[in-house]
Amino acid sequence: MLVEEFITILKNFPKKHIATMILGFMLLISVSILGSKDFSNEEKISELTKPLKLLTLTDNTQIKIPLLEKEKLIKRNDSLFTILKELGVLQEDIIKLVNSNNSNLLSKIEVGDKIKILISEKGELNQLFYQDNIREGIRADKKENGFIIKKYKSDIEKVKVFKHVVIEDSMYMSGLRENVPDSVLMDLAYINGWDIDFTHDIRPGDTYSIIYEEIIIDGEKVIDGDILISEFNNRGKQFIAVRFDLDANTSEYFNPNGENVKKAFLRSPVKLSYISSKYNLKRRHPVLHTIRAHKGVDYAANKGSPVRATGDGTILFAQYNGGCGNEIKIKHSEDYVTRYCHLDRFGTRAKVGRKVKQGQTIGYVGSTGLATGPHLHYEFHVNGKHTDPLKVKFPNASPVEEKQAIAYERKSQNLLNELNNYKYLIDRGEVYGG
Ligand SMILES: [Zn+2]
């Protein structure tokens, strides 16, 4: 019957392709013998393992039937029992597993994690892996009378990847064509976004070179890591950013002079918005209809859109205040204060004296006070004077600290050398940089 099925499949293909098909099919079988990993659906696995018997019969060779590897992503309402049942594990093996010592380690499985098992054709559970996070997991190994369940640590290896991209259209599309992972391109845009406007500044022929990390867990590639160094050539100007660990939990990017690539202020306090009124010292006020200087920038956005602190600082003022409506003022340093008006409501962080970080939500767009519609009126004060936030040159965020200067110098020099070596090899055609 299997043979018939096989022949029926073949009949549907042109004859000259049949020989290739058979070859391909044999190849597929051998792949399944080796224990392929990527079969998400069980039917595919059983289809491929059936002809295996056929092969052993005709070939008269003894091939040990391999264990199947199956995995499942944990979804809402899944339990260990339902998952193993769904993967085809015999009920008696599930019960043995649950009754084994340390089975409590497997009691708190979380949505989004993965369970991977090795199982015989009959559904006998041989091994189970539950990956808790990148570095750790729990494994169960079958022994005579049950399972040995214990925690395990993954083997983590970091590999450096080099890419060189010549931009044809956009930074993003050109990068994708050279197989730069999506997440790495997002990081690249963030790192360079302070200096380059990716919508308006990019020209064909601009280039970028990056070294980023790939994190390999237990010998299988799993995660695209961070960019270690990037060099962006935009319209003849070069921007270099080097990743540097400030402490165990924070890393930032600096240029070779040790200056932070980040600016101390975000360009815009509301993400999805458009500028409805610019800084103008001779504007007619839309509500009062008199000439009144507009000493800020208006960002029109939907009511309720989050308003971000444009820089690190301390909340100086947060309450209703006449025409400004619900108002927040943030003091960023001795020299800089920002002001936000017409907020619909305040964010939980907006308490006088509280510290806020750049990008944190401090309130929500509204039309309190003198406003014709929902918008944010945003002001930027330098040394107590109103300044046009669209024209002011923002200071850089904190540079590398004095005490880390030598360590940074060494690190950035090494990475720069590495990057230049790669580029040199590409120029000579000795390495493929795409
Ligand atoms: Zn305004």
Description:
The chain is an alpha+beta fold. It folds into four domains: about 60 residues, no CATH class; about 90 residues, Roll (Nuclear Transport Factor 2, Chain: A), CATH 3.10.450; about 140 residues, Nuclear Transport Factor 2, Chain: A; about 110 residues, Glucose Permease (Domain IIA). α2 crosses α3 and α6 runs antiparallel to α7. The N terminus is likely disordered. Bound molecules: zinc ion (ZN).
Largest sheet: 8 strands, antiparallel
- Given as residue ranges, the uncertain stretches (5+ residues, pLDDT < 50) are 1-62
Oligomer: single chain
Compressed to H and E, one letter per element, the order equals HHHEHHEEEEEHHEEEEEEEEEEEEEEEH
What would CATH call the architecture of the largest domain? Answer: Roll
If helices are DSSP runs of H or I spanning 4 or more residues, what is the number of helices?
A: 8
**Morphology call:** globular
**Bound chemical compounds:** zinc ion
Radius of gyration from the alpha-carbon trace, in angstroms: 30 Å
**Number of spatially distinct domains:** 4
